[in-house]
Design goal:
Chain lengths: 266, 646
Amino acid sequence: MGEKADVQMAQNPFEPYVESLRQQLEEQDPVFLIGVVVALAVVIITFVFLKYFLTSKTVRSAVLLVGLCDSGKTLLFSRLLSGKFKRTQTSITDSSAPYKAKNDRGSTWTLIDLPGHDSLRPQYLEKFKSAARAIVFVVDSAIFQKEVRDVAEFLYNLLTDPVISRNTPAVLVACNKQDVTMAKSAKLIQQQLEKELNTLRVTRSAALSSQDGSVGRSLYLGRKGKDFEFSQLPLKVEFLECSARGSKGEEGDADVEKLERSLAKL
Amino acid sequence: MLDFFTIFSKGGIVLWCFQGAGVTESFTGPVNALIRSVILQERSGNNSFTHESLSLKYKLDNEFELIFVVGFQKILTLTYVDKFIDDVQLHFRDRYKNELDKKGALKLLNNNFEFEDDFKILLREAEESGKARSPVTMRSFKESEKSQKTVKSMIETKGGDKGKEQGGKKTKNTKKDAEPVKGDQGRTSSSGQKMVENGNQGLTPEEAMQKKREEFFRRRVGPTEKNSKSPKPSQKPRGKQMRVWDMGGSSTKDLDYSERNGDGSTNGGEQNQEAQTEGIQLRSMEGDLLPVDYDSSEEEDMEEEEEKVVAGEIPKPGSKKGSSFGGMFGMLKGLVGSKSLTRDDMESALDKMRDHLIAKNVAADIASQLCDSVAKKLEGKVMGTFTTVTSTVKQALQDSLVQILQPKRRVDILRDVMEAQSQRRPFVITFCGVNGVGKSTNLAKISFWLIENGFTVLIAACDTFRAGAVEQLRTHQRRLNSLHPPEQHRGRPVVQLYEKGYGKDAAGIAMEAIAYARNQGFDVVLVDTAGRMQDNAPLMTALAKLIAVNMPDLVLFVGEALVGNEAVDQLVKFNQALADHSMSDKPRLIDGIVLTKFDTIDDKVGAAISMTYITGQPIVFVGTGQTYNDLRSLNARAVVSALMKA
């Protein structure tokens, strides 16, 4: 009985308020009430809308084609989209187009071809990296030996970028120009890059800070003490071979099946 | 005549190309070289470029993001090329406007641009217009004006004739006229009889001769004759008179002004004259002193420009404020909607930007070249909604500045030193620059940084001229060794100085130092050279010899951030000297820049832009003080934002 009285006592403090509220509401004009309800509904709907839009923006739907100058990105772009061979020159802006993946879901992404020239690379990467779902890193397998340090530096910058390491897009290293006889295989390129990145992560963390005091990336790739391997990274890095020109020259098809398969798996 | 013609998009896909008859080489190489050296380095002010034996001309279409390039042999001078490119561009745009309008790159890939026939027609037209015009046939007598005139009107009176002839003789300015006159006279006397069929039927041959002669003089002497005709010709024949100077009297008594100072009457005229001549000078010194080398004409020009600018701006707000309703809509229409930019629209914005850059210590002609290049990039571009011309220009300029400051090759000294280490040879860095920029100080800072990263350094004292240079380096060496004692670094001193005193040949010392480093296993050799002015030819030759003989891995030019327009001159002359005096066909030029005294400038960071623009080489180090820790790397974005700040 005492408990019932307690519960009733607990309910009682609210009772008068609820009563007064109900009385006030009944006193008000019903039109006014409807107006208030509608306004509240609009506010709630707007919130839901905004949330929906914001989350849909963060749905990354771009596949970036990056790489050094002359590695064959623009030709690869053309082959993936239309299958045709087109002569290309050094790109100075980005090109983008919707790409239909060859899988059952039929998902479409935006394929974006970024210029590879050193002076343009950083600003275009800056622009598109937050929207990247996958990054196709194109490597010229024929002259890889000469360029290994440049390739490694670019890859290092890519992997230690804070936005990219946060979003963890899939990284596909496409070893292009396999039609050339002296082209290195994907496995060899992977080993060379691992060795190079091993040294780079030491030198780059010792690099000078910028003149305004901002220190460079402090992200350390892989695990300290052990030799660097791509499997140590939180990102998924996959190596594959392709040839944008194709073995039959300009008329034939390109050998990009492996790339298409990997893109379909995304 | 043309070797090739290409049309490609800015994204790199070639839309259409034409290769001239008999040309086997691919044009991809030269066009790529054009893109990399001109467009990407913001030198698109002048639109022609030479690559080996080819001369390339190009045109940017910013509305559809296309580039038109034509290439022909350098030795040919084709006059029709500029107009031809313009014609082709207009034709191509008109024909493929629909396809090019769509967004996205698919349109470029899927369409086949069949431009062959149009191109051939245009080329034929251009070639025909360029051909030299056939020589103009002489008019027959019937067509000339003379046949229409009556004979009487052509006869001149005897008196006037004689006067003109004498006037012609007397106003001979050059002695050359004397000879043709004699020659004429000689000729006319001998062939006087032949001159019958002159068309001057009314005149005797002599008079015809005279008339022809003074016509000839009139044409030879030209406008001066016209002036001399005005004084009466009767005044001319007079003996040579002794010249009388106004102020010079015949006796010195006239020059004695001591009594006359009080008088006013006799010398009133003269004093007034004096007062007048001095009066001009009197009022010019009123007010503050003028600064050195101040040109009053410059100020007038600036005032006129300001007036023009103000006058130009006043009508615009006036038009906005005046007709309120229509004006408002007009302004809004200017903001919204697709409007393509023209040169005139951008002119005022570009001028403002140019002045802003110059105020931030960018060299003057580099600022104007940059603004020209930005104008070329934006011409014809369609502005998006709600963007003003100023903001578009500002954004484009910012992008180009960042692009210039981005290094065009990998800059990682530590990695390269490691590479040299694995090849068992020392990595040689040479520092050059004018006097007093901070070579020795920054050399010490860089060696400190290298030591901290575990390398051993040999400093070669190749400054054998300046008093105290070797001692300065020895002090640095001692200090560095005390900071990093040998016990911590495998028992050998981390820094050693290689010096041979003063007065010796710098190139020889450098060569010996490098050999010593190789023997002793040093990782890096830092070569310090004497400061020298870029105009000093023997010293520049000596520097070029040092670099050509020793082939260092890195040639760093040390420049201070305080320098203004001088930077352009210094770098150009240094590069020129290095190129001229090297024996090989691939001379070693400046590979990188060290920008020193960066802490002394707040945001007037324009020197960085000038130096990178001129050489195309990256800024490797930035010196921000005098202690060992004051060494930084360049952050392009921070520098550009400091530059663009108002």
